[in-house]
Every structure is written in structure tokens, then in C-alpha cells.
Amino acid sequence: MTFHQSEHSLLVIPGPIEVSDDVLFANASPSQSHMSKSFTQTFGEVIKMFRQVLVTEHGQPFIVAGSGTLGWDMVASNLIEPGDEALVLHSGYFGQSFTDCLETYGAKVTQLKAPVGHCPSREELAQALKAKKYKIVTVTHVDTSTGVLSNPRVISEVVHEVSPDTLVVLDGVCSVGSEEIRMDEWSLDVVMCASQKGLGVPPGLSLVCASERAIRLVETRKTKINSYFASWLNWLPVMRGYEQGKPVYFATPPVQLICALHVSLKEITSKPIQERWAKHQQASIDFKQFVTDELGLKQVPNDPSIAANGMTAIYFPDGLSASDIVPRLLERGIVIAGGLHKEIKDKYFRIGHMGISVIDTTTRHDLEKVKDALRNVLNAAGYVNKTVGNNTK
Amino acid sequence: MTFHQSEHSLLVIPGPIEVSDDVLFANASPSQSHMSKSFTQTFGEVIKMFRQVLVTEHGQPFIVAGSGTLGWDMVASNLIEPGDEALVLHSGYFGQSFTDCLETYGAKVTQLKAPVGHCPSREELAQALKAKKYKIVTVTHVDTSTGVLSNPRVISEVVHEVSPDTLVVLDGVCSVGSEEIRMDEWSLDVVMCASQKGLGVPPGLSLVCASERAIRLVETRKTKINSYFASWLNWLPVMRGYEQGKPVYFATPPVQLICALHVSLKEITSKPIQERWAKHQQASIDFKQFVTDELGLKQVPNDPSIAANGMTAIYFPDGLSASDIVPRLLERGIVIAGGLHKEIKDKYFRIGHMGISVIDTTTRHDLEKVKDALRNVLNAAGYVNKTVGNNTK
To answer: Given an 8 Å threshold on Cβ–Cβ distance, is B24 in contact with A30?
Structure first.
């Protein structure tokens, strides 16, 4: 049968994102045994393709029923022993949450905080690393609360220069599949994400990839891992087993979601991953130009060089607030997100542009629809762009 | 559109189970915001209906992306403080795994072990409770590895008589939706399960329900909860929020799976839950009669009174093994499960009969198909039932 998903409002929040008919149809696959030959092959291929997306040869994927949040537990419970020092590079809401999670597992956390719209600089990082020895440094690649894009390549460079034993952990929840990530080349020790953003699959999967160095560290830790479900030692035989075609049981895998992920990863890896990054970047440049130049609005990230390619965070114009924009877009069939970062919660809104919304531009015109609606809604709210003509960018 | 799932082999392992077209179609729902009004209502209703299934008024559901295994982490991380004593009633593989999980969180575990095919007796339990004071007692309602059915009503009665402060935790992974459970009437403190068995939904959800007493205990514990993702304190505002129509964020919920669960729970709660239990019981009696009387095979559970209603675990006849049965059933389009309990792993097989396979007997004839195929495969393997005529049961 040809499956077409039901008519629905266009979802352009920074995740979950719009999902293709093929992916949704796979999510409605008939029941099959999690130990069957065919599912084992599917899962094995998923593990291999996830490596391709992260451009890693020897990274060890862990793909588990859960959410992005569970990835933090995986990092913290496996890599942290009580009393270990962790440095969290903070560029928004999610740095604080990751901190809470690390502390739960006994880490002593130092946060390198940047003001809203900024991320810590190379110099600040180098200084922090010289002041104290850290077991791990964590980076939120794209902080979904601010749309600020960090630079994991540079961060990893600095860490490897100043403190080569320190592990680099990339929270790629809002970046894997939409931002450039080269796990091996950049010497990242962990990259973690979820299914519902750049990977274009419904929510319900936690995806983590650990370097050989990270795995060795877990295998040689002095204290026991303080989690059962998040313990890599419990999942390692499972992931290795499925990849080798021999299913191993620890917990029943989310069969249909793995099938959906399989379809999405097949599509993603059918072309060079660089093309996917470039498409996200181009769509982002176009959309941000529309927002700043045509609409005259201000982005939350302080500088274009630190603005995410998969989402845009925008301040409301003076005199307007969420109630003038969000419900009116909804009436026009477009779902965007309000603010999340508590310091500026009511002052801005967020729009996601990831996955098929930017890749499938022949049959879909998602961002055109968003632009039209945003233009109309702002007009209807009486907003006039006073910067037009003055903008030299 | 009318959705029909693809042709596929009949899945009659003890979970995942066959899922209805309506449930699968809901699992292919278009993307929607996890904070939207409509999803909030769906999730709120799911929480309320889950209470109905467990026949509890004030139990607090936690419905989270994960698997049954994550439910153990929830129990252990929330209810156990380091050094707490736990008593695990062991009726198969899953008692040992629950023990491993409890120990991970610092519990001192005593296992009350029964031989394969048995479960601990009322007297053994009373004796154990008199010998030591336990914080919690855990029971595997149906141990999927043996098909042994424990009696949580009686167990809870004994616990409340002998050691009223001890919490009773029911692992209902292979029983919720297929076996009688009355959480309030039986004074159970936790019931935990997963989506892919008696609830008739694809795998990927961990469902836990905690009594008011259990929640109070968590809120007044002396040490911090040793998990972030499994901490009820992190999920409480989320569950209460969605139920009250006000979405709260901790982790992105698995939207499509919650929609699928909504459809299944609507169907389940549209009739008195007692009818559902009775249908499972009747189907089980019929199937077990076929297995023992017509085929002359022996069940793993030692006595019919401790045999699960949602599955049957059967010893191979002398001279036959898995390779004579399992692949030949597969050729006939029927997927059953081999052995799991390590003491008897190669000596038995398992067949599940839960959900639509036993409820929807007008349009489906799942168990008839299984019976026919099993009869044929055994015949083809040269098996003759020598007990026919001698069987007085």
C-alpha cells in the first residue's frame, strides 16, 4: 500500500520535526520478534549507518529506547566516578540540566557560563582547563533554548592541547543530522542525540556513540557503574551482538522505532553527509536573512557565526509578545515554539528547520509557508520593519 | 485512509505481541508538538486510563520512553537507599536480573528461590519476612522465562500481616493487561510493565504506577536519588502536569507511542477489565488443554494453578529439540520463542497468547492457526502422543 500521513499542521519547532511518509510507515511495521533474523539485520545496519552519520570508524553506538535526556545519564553514569571533576560549557538551558545530571552521579561540576546568546570563548576554555584538571568537558552543540551553536572542533582542539587526558563529550541532540560533526577527525569521545530532530524519526530513541578511549575508561573504572539501564557494560554485548548478526537480550528494543530509524538513515546515508550539512546551512542562511533583513528582527545568538543551522531563535519586536504570534501562526496551520531559556522566556520564539523541511524542497515548501505566515501575522499585528533600507548586511 | 498492516508471520512469542491496525496506524501519526493542546490531552487520558487498567484510584503513573528494564531502575533508584534490604521472590530468569538492578543501587538483596517451574510458597515468604526486616519485596507476576504465575494478592496479604512497613513491588511486565491485577485492593505499592505485552502496543514504553505510600517514601528519603532519568522526582511534575492539561518539560515524550498506547487503552477500557482477564484465562485454559491433553506435552510450571494466562511454556517431547519445532513453525508463518531460563534453555519452548490474539476471536483465529501448525510440525517430526487415552485430566 502507499502510505500517506494524515493532514496536519506544519511542525517547525526545533524538534520533534516533520517526518516523511516512509519513516512513519516503517513506524507502523507489523510486530516482529526482536530476536528474529530480519530485525537483527535491520538493527545491525542501523548501528553501522549511525557511525556513518557521525563520520566515525570505531565509535561504539548505543541505540536504546529513551530520550536525549537518557544520553546524559549514559555519559554521567559510565564516565563519572564520585568526585570526578567535570567542566560544562554552558550556552543555555541544557548546560544547566546536564550539570544536574552529572551531579546526580557524583561529579563536581564547574560551569563555564556565557551570557544569553553567547558561548564560552576559546580563551576562557583554555584558562579553565589550566586552572583545574577535568575528567570530562561537555559541550551543547546547539542549545535548543537559545539556538547558539558551539564549535566542537575548536573546543576539542583546545582540550587536546591543554588537557589531553580530558574526554570531550558532545551533546548533539539538536545537531546530529543537521550540523557538521566529524567524530574521529575532531577526536570527540562521546556524541549523543535523540531520534526526533536532525535524524527525522519520531521521538523515543536515545542514540549515543562512544570512542574507544571512552569505552576503555568504562571498562577500567574503579567503582561500579551506578545505573543498570544506562550502563554501557549491559548494552555492549547487545550492540555488538546485533551488529554481528547475533541478537543478545538485555531489554526489548523498540522494534518499530528502529525500523523507522533504519528508513531515515538509509535515506540520509544514500548521499554524502556533507551535502546534508550544506543543505541545512543554506536553508538556515536564507531563513535568517529573511528574519533579520526582510523582517528586521533580532536573533538570540549574538553573532551569525554562532547561530545554529537547524533552528532560529528570534526576539519578538518591541511591543509584541508570544500571544500576538504563536496562536496566530497556529490558526494558519503552523506550529512554532515559544521561549524556553528562563532569563528571556517571554521575549523570543523559536523555529526549527531540520530534516525533510529543508532536504525535500521539491515536493515540500515548508520554509516558504513559514515565511509567508510569519510575514502576514506580523503585518496583522501592526508590525512595521523600520530597519528596511538601513540594513547594510 | 483505512490502514492495514503488511502481511507478516504470526507473532506468538510472549511479547512483543500482535498489534491491531488501529494501534499501528496511531504509531504512524504525523509529527505533533509534545507541548501541544491535543497531545497534552492524549497523554493526560493515557495516564488516567492506565490507572483504570490497574484498578487504582490514587496510584501515580509514570509513562516514559524506555523498556520494562527501565522500570526496575525506577523501583531501585527511587525506593532503595544504600544498604536497604530487599527480598526478591524468584520464579525464573527475571528475578535474578531484578536482583542485579537492585544491587546496582546499593540494596542488600535476599533471593527466595524456587526450583524451575515453581514459585516460593506462602510459608517460605512468611518465614523470610520474620527472619529479617525488608524495605521492599519484589514479585515477578509472570516470569516470561518459565511461564510461572505468582499470586500477588496472597503475597501482599502475607507481607501486610507479617511486615506491614515493607513495600510490595509487582513486576507486571508479562501480566498487565492479561492477568488480574487490583493494585488498590491488593495494596500493591508499585506495578511496573512495558508496552509490548498485554497492553498491545509496540515496544518502547516503560510504564510504572506507584502508590501514595511509595511516593511519600521517595519524597522523604534521606539520601539523594542516584539516577536522573529514572528519578520520580524529575517525572512527577511532568505526569501531574500532563494529567492536568498543562504540559511540563523534562524529556521529549515518545509522542507516536503515546498515541498508539492511547488507542489501545481506549479499546481495553471500553469494556470491564474483568472481561479481558476472563478472555485471557479462557484462551489459556483451552490452549493448555490442547498442549497437555491432545499433544501430551508437559508444561514448565509445575501445577496448573501457577501457570500464566498470557503464555504457555512447554517442554519438548523426548527426542525432539528446538530445531525440530521452531524453524518448521516459522516455515508455516508462525513465530514462537525458544527457551530462556538457563537451567533448561534447550529443553522447552514458549508461546504467547495475549492481546488481540485472544481478544479479537471474530476476525482473527491466531490460536487455531498455532494449534494446527504445532500438530502438523510434531507429526512431521515423527512425534506420537503416547499418553492419549491414558490422560484422565
So the answer is: yes
